[in-house]
Write a structure and sequence with these properties.
Blueprint (H helix, E strand, L loop, with lengths): L17 H18 L12 E6 L5 H12 L3 E5 L13 H11 L2 E6 L4 H8 L4 E6 L5 H15 L6 E5 L6 H10 L5 E5 L8 H9 L3 E5 L11 E4 L10 H7 L7 H6 L5 E3 L20 H19 L4
Parallel strand pairs: 1-2, 1-3, 3-4, 5-6, 5-8, 6-7, 8-9
The structure holds N-carbamoyl-L-aspartate.
């Protein structure tokens, strides 16, 4: 079945079936000792990854790069649009076409929705969407799901709340689509202006996923198994007055977690601003730093699959 991904692109969470998820998690679990540096690997020796990042990133770019390096591969990158020929007016299509002549695989992050698809059409090389503006972030969703599995030992039967910027938060858009493959109950928590896109909700309805929306972070906290929090995406607002109204809409505190279900797992794709108080970091419930690690074995699994080496 791993052959299905050989030379393919990863653009959207929609691409994955439940069987695909099981297979990716199985490969990622095998990659874990390599990701932790306990075992060495030369699996992707002589393969090159380009990370074309035209938006800020720490975790995502580093975890793609360390995943490639720990598998014995090599990396080249452009970490800012200011240092690429895009500033000379070159189209994304042309940039990607050229980079595709140099490397074996490309991970791209770009502020425009649909940019990863544009990139994928420009080259025969596999292209991985590492975030296309407020669109999707499928590899983050895979690592999020893998984290839930690691923390809660299952996904079916869980009640999962997603809070914050559900409108512009691409991690939410991708994760909700993956969760639709499971028997879960979803709760979307956001201010009115940051509600999840209607298209996403329609997709969940079509898939028969049970969900509700609320504005109140306290609403049902004693029931949630997982609370997946997100940053309000200031950079996506066209009117900063609107951002000011919602930027401090809530903060997850130790006290709030204490009122939650025992063992409630607090997740966040990071970076975190004020939406999770630092005092929460010391609680066993705080999974967000562990979550960042899981990006490495997940991205190792994806790189190996797309390069036909899984
Ligand atoms: C997220 C992103 O870039 O979408 N971060 C990440 O990739 N871990 C979330 C965010 O920027 O708020």
């Amino acid at each position: 079945m791993s052959i299905k991904f050989h030379s393919k692109d990863i653009i959207s969470a929609k691409q994955f079936t439940r069987e695909d998820l099981d297979m990716i998690f199985e490969i990622a679990a095998r990659m874990e000792p390599i990701a932790r540096g306990d075992e060495e690997s030369r699996l992707l020796r002589s393969k090159y990854l380009a990370t074309l990042f035209f938006e800020s990133s720490t975790r995502t770019r580093f975890s793609f790069e360390i995943a490639m390096l720990r598998l014995g591969g090599q990396i080249i990158n452009t970490s800012h649009v200011a240092f690429s020929s895009i500033t000379k007016g070159e189209s994304l299509h042309d940039t990607v076409k050229v980079v595709g002549n140099f490397v074996d695989i490309i991970a791209i992050r770009h502020p425009l929705v649909g940019s990863a698809l544009t990139a994928a059409k420009a080259t025969e090389r596999p292209v991985i969407n590492a975030g296309d503006g407020p669109g999707e972030h499928p590899t983050q969703a895979l690592l999020d799901l893998f984290t839930i599995l690691k923390e809660k030992k299952r996904i079916d039967g869980l009640k999962i709340a997603m809070a914050g910027d559900l409108k512009f938060g691409r991690t939410i858009h991708s994760l909700a689509q993956l969760l639709a493959h499971f028997d879960v109950e979803l709760v979307f928590i956001s201010p009115e202006i940051l509600r999840a896109p209607e298209g996403l909700l329609a997709h969940l309805r079509e898939k028969g996923v049970s969900f509700r929306e609320t504005k109140d972070i306290e609403d049902g906290i004693c029931d949630f198994d997982v609370l997946y929090d997100t940053r309000i995406q200031e950079e996506r607002f066209t009117d900063l007055k609107e951002f000011e109204k919602v930027k401090n809409c809530y903060t997850i505190t130790k006290e709030l977690v204490g009122r939650g279900k025992e063992g409630i797992c607090i997740m966040h794709p990071l970076p975190r601003l004020q939406e999770i108080s630092v005092e929460v970091d010391d609680l066993p419930n705080a999974a967000y730093f562990r979550q960042t690690f899981y990006g490495v074995p997940i991205r190792m699994a994806l790189l190996a699959l797309l390069l036909g080496k899984a």
